[in-house]
Structures are given as C-alpha cells and as structure tokens.
Amino acid sequence: MKLIDSIQANAGALQAIRRDIHAHPEIGYDVQRTAALVAGRLEQWGFAVTREVGKTGVVGTLTRGSSTRAIGLRADMDALPVQEANTFAHRSTVAGAMHACGHDGHTAMLLGAAQHLAAHGAFDGTVNVIFQPAEEAGGGARAMIDDGLFERFPCDAVFGLHNWPGIPEGDFAVRPGALMASTSLFRITLRGAGCHAAMPHLGRDPVFAAGQVLSALQGIVTRNRNPIDGAVLSVTQIHAGEALNVVPTDAWLGGTVRTFSDETLDLIERRMKAVVAATASAFDCESEVDFERQYPATINDPAQTALAVEVMRNLVGDEHVNATAEPTMAAEDFSFMLRAKPGCYAFIGNGSGDHRAVGHGAGPCLLHNASYDFNDALLPVGASYFVKLVERFLG
C-alpha cells in the first residue's frame, strides 16, 4: 500500500474530524453545522469556497497552473433518522439521528485530500471538492445540479467513493457501467364499496382485489422482463380497513422498484399500470397508481473507471482491487452527477466490523444499522485515493 506520508501523519486529525461529525449528525438538507465545519476548513487551507449550493451544499475550488481541465470530487454530509445503539464516546448526541451510512467518514476523507492538495498537490488545472447534503432523501445531488453546480464549477469528470461493509478493509470494488440500481416508489390505491363482512355480495371488496394485484405484479418481473435485465419489484406495505367485520371502501399497497436501465424501468411502470387497471376492473373496483422515480441507476463511464482502477491499483496493489464488482440493488443519488458528467463511483471496503471496540451495539456493522460505525483506518486510504486521482487526471 502506497499511502501519502503527510496524510498518514494526519490520520489522527482526520479521525477527530470524523468523530466530531459523527457525534453531531444532521439529516437531509439541515446540515448547517457540518457545512460550516467543511467551509471553515477549506477556507483555512486556501480554497475558494461557495456555500449554499443546492440549499446547503458546499463547493471548494483550488486552481494551479494554466490548464483549463477540471475534476470534481464529491462527498455526502447527511445522516439518517436512526437512534444510535452504540455507547462509545463519539456516539450521536442528537436523539433519533445517526451517521449510520458513513457519510461522516466520506466527508472527513475528502477534507483530508483537500488539505493535502492545498499544501502539496502537484497538478495543473482545477479541483472542485463537492460536499453534498440530502443524499439519503431529497436528492441533494440533483438540487446542486439544478442550482448550476456544473455551470458555476465546470468539471470534465466527477468521482465519488462510498464505504462498503463486507469488503476487506481498504480494498476497492468498482465496475464500468451499472454499479447501483435506480430506485422508484409506488402506491396503488383500490376503491370499492364497503359493506358488512357477512354480506360481501352487497359490496365491492378492495381487499380481495389488492390480493390479486399483489400476485399479478410479480408476473411483470417473471414474465414481461427480459431475464438478463436485473430488476426487483417489492410490495412492502398493504393497508385496509379498521374493523374485523367490515369490508372497507378503500385499500392500498405500495413498495419499491429497482432496475439498472431506464428501458426496464419504463417497462415495469407501463405494465404495472396496465395490470392494476385490468385486475381492479375484473373485481369491479377503481384503481390509481402513483409511480415516483427517485434516483436513476448509477452508471460508471468506462474510460473514467479505467483511470480510477489504475489509481487504485497503484495505491493498494492489484490484489486489493476488484474491477468487476457485482452490482448492487441499493441506490445512490451520485447517479444524477454521472448523468451530467462522465465519472466513476466506487466502493472502499469498511471491513467486517473487527475495528469495533467496546461501546458498539450488538448488531452487525452494516450500513443503515443502529450499531454501525465507520472504520477510521479508511480515512488515509480514501484521502490518498482522491489525491492520486487528481494528480493522475490533472497530471
């Protein structure tokens, strides 16, 4: 492993920043404290800083030499509405909020890279460090783009990094093309006519219709979709009625759809609406489908992924880089940035949880888990990766 000496020497300071952010989690766009911390450090190191990009995002810009080329590096700042189970000293001080996905670590890694680039960076061009709010919900990446992110801070390519439990500590995993899925939500409402449960022939039962819709939806994935195209359609909620002896007037069911392509997503939405309408009609009910597309699939540019893999291999060695990683059905709003600019999103291994000491909760150290904690050993690895990426891209 060829980490940058000055970053390794600064690992303790990066850990302190990470743990301070962990202790003070902020959700969605309400990341004022974290954004102020980030902006203050960047200004201290000599970056030109712009606040309130996409509501509460922060962008730091550093230019060297005469090249017009520019690179964007992104980290997310927001936490999750989770009550932390850990009891260590840097546990959350905010009830019902926790950094359960490692965005505290992502922010600290990019700050570590920014500090080194300001003091020692050997590059010709412009580095834009992008600190984004509301990745978990609210589409902060899209909000920053809508606020003119890439017009105000031009980038030839953009790169991001996310920790991943289960991958060995400090290893990298990436692939060209689809790395993460799109995410969409749906809610299907069925309207019939309520009646006494002892006399169902006098009503039109939306609960029975909902059961038929639930079964019919699975035929979209098993019979309409090309088996080669990855997709998940999960019904996660069914709601109807209040009394056990009354057939209700309304029922609804909802869930999520995940795909790796817009074409497959178009197919599922189209077939869902057709299946629901036909099934509801067969049982004399009215229907309505609300289909909300949230984040598109995260699609890595092949050329920029190849460049990133080269940097990873030079940093940690060939045996610690999986360049053909299996994609995941989880979603990520960095996908909006990759739709606007070529780039690469990658995973850095958070390990199996062995880094956890006394004070951790009993649960697994997985993302979105109340017992999760970011592995601080990754801070100099991720920061070194970002620096090497800049030096390679703007060499």
UniProtKB/TrEMBL annotation:
Keywords in alphabetical order: Hydrolase
Membrane spanning residue stretches: none
NCBIfam families: amidohydrolases
Origin: domain of life: Bacteria
Organism: Paraburkholderia tropica
SUPFAM superfamilies found in the cross-reference section: Bacterial exopeptidase dimerisation domain (SSF55031), Zn-dependent exopeptidases (SSF53187)
Protein's recorded name: Hippurate hydrolase
Pfam families: M20_dimer, Peptidase_M20
